[in-house]
Each structure stands twice: as C-alpha cells, then as structure tokens.
Amino acid sequence: MSGTNLTKRKRTDSGDGDASKDDNPTVTRSAEYWLEDGNIILQAENTQYRVHRSILSRQSTVFADMFSLPQPPEFGPGESLVDGCPVVHLQDSAEDVGNLLDLLYESISLQTIEGHISISVIRTMLRLGRKYDFKKLWDRGVSLLEHDYPYTLQKWDEKPKPLISDEPGVIFDVIAIAHENDIKSILPPAYLTMFLRNSLPDIRDGRERLQRLVKAIILDWLRDDELPRADCDSFDKCSAALMGKIKYLYGQDACKLLEYFAYRWDKAELGAGMCEECEIYGNAEYEEGRRILWYNCPQYFELDS
User: Fold this and answer.
1) In which residue ranges is the amino acid composition biased (Basic and acidic residues) (predicted)?
2) Which of 25, 34, 149, 264 is most buried by a 10 A CB count?
3) How far is the C-alpha of 49 from the C-alpha of 47, rounded, in Å?
4) Hey, what CATH topology would domain 6-98 get?
C-alpha cells in the first residue's frame, strides 16, 4: 500500500461550488457516475466521478485505510472541494476507472456471460485489483483467465466455452496481462493458442521450438520399436499404416503439428489403419507425451521462475 499514489490536491474554490471549472476547464463529469448522493470524487485523467466512499472501502483495503485517516486541515469547509466533496486524483486511466465502477456498481454478471467479457475489463480487474487490493476483483480476474486458458491438460481437453470476448488480437493481450501480473500458469495454453491461430514472423521461433518438441515427445511413438506390437494380428498392415503416418506428419507445417498437442487422441485420428492392440499402445504413448509436454512447457520456454 505504501507504493500507491493517492493524493488529494488543494483546489481553489471560486465561490460557485465548482472548483474544477477554474482549475482545469477540460475536466468533465462522468455521465454514468456523477451520483448526487456521492461523497467522494475520483479523478482519472480529465474525467471526474462522484461516487460513495462506502462502495470503494467495502472491497478495497487501500481505499478503506485512506478514508479512515483524519482529514487534513486544508480540507476544511469550503476548501479544495468540488460540490462539497473532496477530490482524489488517481494515476490510472479513465478507461480503467470506468471499468472499475461498472464492476462495483453495476455488478456485471461475470458468471453467466459467455464470450462477452471484454479483455479491457479483465485488465482492470487485475491491474486495479492488485494496486488497490480489490481482492475479489483480482481473484475473479485470475479465475476468468484460468477458465479460458486452463493450466491442466484435462480442463484444456474439456474445452469450456470461453468467457472472454474473442476480439482481434486478444491472445496477445492475454499473454501481456499474464506477464504483467505474474500469472504464469496460463502462459503455456495461451502460447499454444497463439501459435495455433497465428503465423506472424515474430512468433516463428516459438512455433518452431514447439514443433520440434511435438515431434520429439508426442509423436515419437511412431518410430517406437514396440510397434507393431508383438501380439499384432495384422503386422504388415500396421507397419504400412505407421510408415504412412510418419511420411504424412513429418511433412506438415508447424500449425498442423501443433494440433497434435492441442487435440486428444480421438480427435487426432491417428489410430486409423492400425489393429486394436497397436492403437491402444499408440493412444497411451500419445497422451503421455501430451501430458509431459504440457506440464514441462514452462521449463521449455523458460517461464518458470
């Protein structure tokens, strides 16, 4: 809390009850959050919001501590006030503060809206949640990211319906937010999503590294001496099927190979043309390779601190 810059600046009262007009003619009042019974004014950039101390202090220990301090003498009646309310200048964007007030006052239904939660709202929940200790907002923001980018392979395979809006370039925002807030658990699935959706030059190296890992860990069973199996009832057929898969898969581009990291065995359709015993073995080796790669992604990409 000591690093949080919350300052009340002395304002000159012009006598008409609206000091902001004299100090800065460009300051505007929020249309949504200028509440007549509000008792504190927040200013972010050139926008002011008249809101309630109790709403802020109920969920934020930083605001609660600030409001509990004795009011300085220079904030006596008629001094440094706008419409009788003290002004708190925040070093945050108007977008963040607007999002914050939407979350606190409008009670956005973050539980039920699928695919309609803006990434800017998630950013606000984490950035201001951490800065001002809005613990519930922070926890919910992390939960939303972990829902859409789960850190366990089982949840990834279940493919829950996304809650975060799929805006253009949103995956790059997700990765930036994860790094900014040290939420490393979502980085492997976020990077995988980025590699699957994009082929930009600036992600080429990461794609190629992951491509090599997919070949070495997930698809290495294709060259396993255990195949065809000793109890294979169609040795020649399975041998031909394996050779065909090797020629096909190793000629594919990075995106196609990455699908074998993202998809379960039944969706990958790698068992076609093989007998039951060989398919069972391939299935087990394939899924074990996916698990190994998934849980070691932070190490492979130097994401673990």
Assistant:
1) 12-24
2) 149
3) 7
4) Potassium Channel Kv1.1; Chain A (3.30.710)
- Where does the chain hold its CATH 3.30.710 domain(s)? 6-98
Question: Long-range contacts of range 298-304, CB-CB < 8 Å, 24 or more positions apart?
Answer: 298/184, 298/187, 298/188, 300/209, 300/210, 300/213, 301/187, 301/188, 301/191, 301/206, 301/209, 303/184, 303/187, 303/188, 304/184
Q: What is the C-alpha to C-alpha distance for residues 199 and 258, in angstroms, rounded to an integer?
A: 12
**Sole residue written with tokens 């509000």:** 38
3-state helix, strand, coil in the chain (%, to 5): 55, 10, 35
**97, containing H or E segment:** helix 94-101
**pTM to 2 decimal places:** 0.70
Q: Residue 202 — very low, low, confident or very high, per pLDDT cuts 50/70/90?
A: low
Amino acid 212: pLDDT: 86
Tell me the CA distances in angstroms from 60 to 51, 55, 56, 148, 228, one per residue in order: 14, 9, 6, 26, 62
* DSSP result, 111-168: TT-SS-B-HHHHHHHHHHHHHTTBHHHHHHHHHHHHHHS-SSHHHHHH-PPP-B---T
| Residue 67 neighbours by CB distance under 10 Å | 17
Give exposure, 185-223, as e/b (b: 16+ Cβ within 10 Å): bbbbbbbbbbbbeeeeeebeeebeebbebbbebbbebbe
Q: How far apart are CA 27 and CA 281, in angstroms?
A: 69
